[in-house]
Amino acid sequence: MSLPRGAHGTAFAVAVALLVGLYGRTNPPLAQAAEDPCAIRTSDRVVAIGDVHGAFEQFVTILRSAGLIDTRDRWIGGRARLVQTGDVLDRGADSRKVIDLLRRLEREAANAGGRVHALLGNHEFMRLVGDWRYVSSGELRAFTDGESADLRERVHARLAEQAAARARAEKRPFSARAYRLQFMQGVPLGFIEMRTAFDSDGDYGQWIRSRVAAVKINEVLFLHGGVSEKVSTLGCGGLNKAIQADVAALSTPPENIMSLLASAEDGPLWYRGLAAEPEEAFGATFETILQRLGARAIVVGHTPAGDARIRTRFAGRVILIDTGMLNGEFYPGGAPSALELRGDTFTAIYADRREPIAAPALVPETR
Questions:
Q1: Would the N or C end of the chain have less CB density within 10 A of its end CB?
Q2: Are residues 75 and 167 in the same domain?
Q3: Is 235 within 8 Å of 290 (Cβ atoms)?
């Protein structure tokens, strides 16, 4: 795994710094209640949804099928808990609408006695570090308005003036035409607004930075990628602290980013071992992972199922919920889905049906 900065995140990233203060701040991130995300107990139902990747309509469809929102996209889930396991960004066109909906549902669910846990995925982390390889043109368009072209011209003029001054001081040639061409190719409309919005002081950037990587509800751990044997020694709480420290350290020099746990192949945002390791050979290691985490089962997204169905591994103690809901070019045949936990009953929810999940190992132990 590597995190090279994408084409939109390199040549003119300095434009963001020039824009600090040009935009007013919108609503700050919702303050989270004082609740240990690794020790949640509830008798109410829990619904988990995997990777969205900007598939707003599909996300709305499955939220309705799960009985969490009405036809006006308002929360009707009462005291239920919604866990979204990360990767709402990139690939699809409507990630901004997805975040806006999640943020509103956070408030509405809390008012009804429920809760929305929107977790951090690897694509959210990529956005924070300027890796824009998977940003879609639709996502950029969502940040454009009637002022976008004028804003880009103003930024170009300022940067071109500075570049020309440096060239004169260094006694080298400068082509205003070549510079403009490069700038316009590297900074599409919406780029500046999006970079500002996801900056550390930006509205969306603050919201993402407030996310945790994992929650544990009734001894079931939910996170984006998975937990490797090495990371399991941290436990749920240590895992969250490590990732939050990494996010707080993103002002570190770019060459240091790859040393962070949030960037590691065996880190909780990227690890695919629970979806890919041979079950028989990995069984003993997996038992150790569960014991260290104090978990009965682990629910993950990140690794899409080829048949667009929620799958289980390790006798039902790993549940894979990424079913490629974006569909199309990236996930042909994908479909929206949700996992419902209601007491000892686990159910896969699709837009047109429900299917029981056989998970005998999830029955709570007798205390």
A1: C
A2: no
A3: no
In order along its 367 residues, the chain shows pLDDT tens digits of 444 334 444 444 444 444 434 443 444 444 444 799 999 999 999 999 999 999 999 999 999 999 999 999 999 999 999 999 999 999 999 999 999 999 999 999 999 999 999 999 999 999 999 899 999 999 999 999 999 999 999 999 999 999 999 999 999 999 999 999 999 999 999 999 999 999 999 999 999 999 999 999 999 999 999 999 999 999 999 999 999 999 998 876 777 888 899 999 999 999 999 999 999 999 999 999 999 999 999 999 999 988 999 999 999 999 999 999 999 999 999 999 999 999 889 999 999 999 999 875 554 444 3
The whole-angstrom separation of Cα 68 and Cα 78 is 8
- Residue where the block lists tokens 């007491």: 343
Cα 257 to Cα 245: distance, rounded to the nearest angstrom: 12
CA 182 to the chain's CA centroid: 31
Distance (Å, whole) CA 274 – CA 277: 6
Q: Identify the three-state secondary structure at position 116.
A: strand
337 and 213 in a single domain? The answer is yes
Q: Which amino acid is located at 310 in the chain?
A: I
Strand order in the sheet with 337-342: 115-118, 81-84, 46-49, 337-342, 345-350, 354-356
Q: Looking at the structure, do residues 225 and 338 belong to the same domain, yes or no?
A: yes
Domain that holds residue 159: 148-189
User: What 3-state class would DSSP assign to 312?
Assistant: strand
329 in the same domain as 299: yes
Domain check: are 351 and 228 in the same one? yes
Rounded Cα distance between 72 and 259, Å, is 44
- Paired with 341 in beta bridges are 46, 346
Q: Which residues contact 191 (CB under 8 A, 6 or more apart)?
A: 8, 15, 140, 152
